[in-house]
C-alpha cells in the first residue's frame, strides 16, 4: 500500500484578494463594454460594441 503526502500551502487573504481583484475588474469592464456601451446613444461606440458582440457570438437583436 502506497501513501501519498500532500502539501497544503495556506495563502493569506491579501494574496487571494490580489488575484481576485484583476479578474473582477476585467469582468466588470467587459460587461460595461458589451452592454453599457452597446446601449449608448453615441453611434460610433454603439457600432463598435455591436460588432464586438457579433464577433464573440453574443446575441443582440
Descriptive notes:
It comes from Aromatoleum petrolei. The chain crosses the membrane at residues 15-37. The structure is a single chain. With 61 residues, the protein is mainly α. 61% of the residues lie in helices and 0% in strands. It has helices at residues 13-36, 43-55. The termini are far apart.
Fold topology:
Elements: H1 13-36, H2 43-55
What is the string of helix and strand elements?
A: HH
Number of helices: 2
Quaternary structure type: single chain
**End-to-end separation:** 61 Å
Strand content: under 5%
A few lines on this structure:
The protein has 61 residues and is mostly helical. It has two helices and no strands. It comes from Aromatoleum petrolei.
Give descriptors for this structure:
61 residues; mainly alpha; 2 helices; elongated; 61% helix
Amino acid at each position: 500500500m502506497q501513501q501519498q503526502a500532500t502539501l497544503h500551502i495556506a495563502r493569506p487573504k491579501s494574496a487571494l484578494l490580489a488575484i481576485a481583484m484583476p479578474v473582477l475588474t476585467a469582468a466588470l469592464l467587459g460587461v460595461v463594454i458589451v452592454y453599457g456601451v452597446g446601449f449608448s446613444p453615441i453611434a460610433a461606440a454603439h457600432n463598435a460594441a455591436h460588432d464586438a458582440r457579433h464577433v464573440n457570438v453574443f446575441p443582440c437583436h
